[in-house]
Amino acid sequence: MSHQKIDIFDTSLRDGEQVPGCKLNTEQKLIIARELDELGVDVIEAGFPVSSPGDFNSVVGISKIVKSAAVCGLSRAVRNDIKVAAEALTYARKPRIHTGIGTSDSHIKYKFKSNREEILVRAFDAVSYAKTFVEDVEFYAEDAGRTDNAYLAKVCEVAIKAGATVLNIPDTTGYCLPSEYGAKIKYLKDNVKDIDKATISCHCHNDLGLATANSIEAIINGAGQVECTINGIGERAGNTALEEVVMILKQHPYLDCDTNINTKRLFHMSQLITKHMGISPQPNKAIVGANAFAHSSGIHQDGVIKRRDTYEIIDPADVGVTESAIVLTARSGRAALAYKAKNAGYDLTKLQLDEVYLNFLNFADKCKDVNDSDIHQIVETSKVYREI
Ligand code: KIV
Ligand code: ZN
User: Fold this and answer.
1) What does the pLDDT average to over 205-233?
2) Which of 131, 133, 209, 328 could link 86 by a cystine bridge, Cβ 3.0 to 4.6 Å?
3) What's the rounded Cα separation, in Å, for the pair 231 and 270?
4) Is the pLDDT of residue 386 over 70?
5) Which helix (H) or strand (E) holds 242?
């Protein structure tokens, strides 16, 4: 595989906003869009314009303010949706219409009460119609994860013939295994006529906790765009987390892929989404969780104090986190206590540390963690400290 620039398509404002109870107003969406543009994403999916007047207005507003990224509006394979999306994108410097239809047998039979041939016709019509408004048209094959590969290849061929510039292959239900999803992308690369006329995009959901792994496997097998959200927000178990994909590509240079993302802004971006959506990532969330760079066990703390990369594969500064945290708990050792005590102004001798450490353990056993004011109290009340 030769060196590849991977496009980052952020859908925090569309798929991500589908988290129950986390709807954003237009003003909030504009703030977030501006920051996504600063972060360096290639595409901002700004909304689903036909879904409500509020969403339409948000897409109009975002189109006006975004400077670098393409701005994308979602639509079903329905002419009126497409027309409304095109209207909402009028002011975008780089407009993209994202249109598509369900392609799995279950979607075709139960959702559309249709058949495979008719879906091909609708796909062709949707892309051709979207092309009358904008040059950049992305086609999604909803539930591609559970769509038979041979039929999916036919759908992709039809979309390319109609002028699609990007083919989105969503694992809508988060069902695929990484090997399966990677093989699907490779199958399309190997079997779709004129596949090089379009970029393959992966769009993974996290129902089985595999969204990031599946996205990476898709990249390895030829996907050139990743659809993702900040903090992995999204309906049900969420979408692929932008910060995870970006840092995996950065930390594994042998994959020979890069992105435009300014990784130093990742933590800030995560906090912005947390603030506006009102939900925090879980503390152990990779890259941006509160504990992602916190060390609490004695063995790890000793290693990190001696040399950070003993237990950290990412320099926290690379994602905008000021420094790693040494958290004192009853599992912490002397090295961590000496380190934290020194930061609090106490340069303890070995003798002092021995006693202070015993007092510390008695204290720590009774609480979750030990903060700076607890350290003052423990040191000041230790007999040996007072005597020296
Ligand atoms: O998950 C999905 O299939 C989607 C499409 C609408 C792109 O979000
Ligand atoms: Zn989705």
Assistant:
1) 98
2) 133
3) 6
4) no
5) helix 242-251
d(CA 149, CA 191): 10
| C-beta separation of 200 from 188 below 8 A | yes
Ligand number nearest CA of 144 is 1
Tell me if 206 sits within 8 A of 173, measured CB to CB: no
Pairwise CA distance, residues 180 & 177, whole Å? 5
Ligand 1 pocket test, pick from 45, 104, 140, 143 with the greatest ligand atom count within 8 Å of Cβ, gives 140
Sign of CA dihedral 213, 214, 219, 225: negative
Residue with tokens 């670098």: 68
- CA–CA gap between residue 359 and residue 111 (Å, rounded): 66
pTM exceeds 0.90, yes or no: yes
d(CA 4, CA 53): 39
Residue 347, helix vs strand vs coil: coil
Closest Cα to atom 6 of ligand 1: 142
Report the distance separating Cα 68 and Cα 190, nearest Å: 33
- What phi and psi, each to the nearest 5 degrees, are found at residue 301? -60, -45
Residue pair 218/185 in contact (Cβ under 8 Å)? The answer is yes
Closest by alpha carbon to 192, among 156, 238, 159, 223?
156
User: Token digits for 309?
Assistant: 């990369």
**Complex ipTM > 0.85:** yes
Q: How many CA atoms lie within 13 A of 388 on its CB side?
A: 17
- Round to the nearest angstrom and report the end-to-end CA distance of the chain: 65
CA of 344 to the centre of ligand 2 (A): 48
| Whole-number Å distance between alpha carbons of 181 and 5 | 21
Q: Are 367 and 334 in contact (CB under 8 A)?
A: no
Atom 1 of ligand 1: nearest residue by CA position = 172
Closest Cα to residue 233, out of 20, 38, 8? 20
What pLDDT score was predicted for residue 2? Answer: 83
Instruction: Please tell me the distance between residue 15's alpha carbon and the centre of ligand 1 in angstroms.
Output: 7
Give dist(CA 368, CA 153) in Å, integer: 55
- What is the whole-number distance in angstroms between the Cα of residue 174 and the centre of ligand 1? 11
Q: How far is the CA of 330 from the centre of ligand 1 (A)?
A: 46
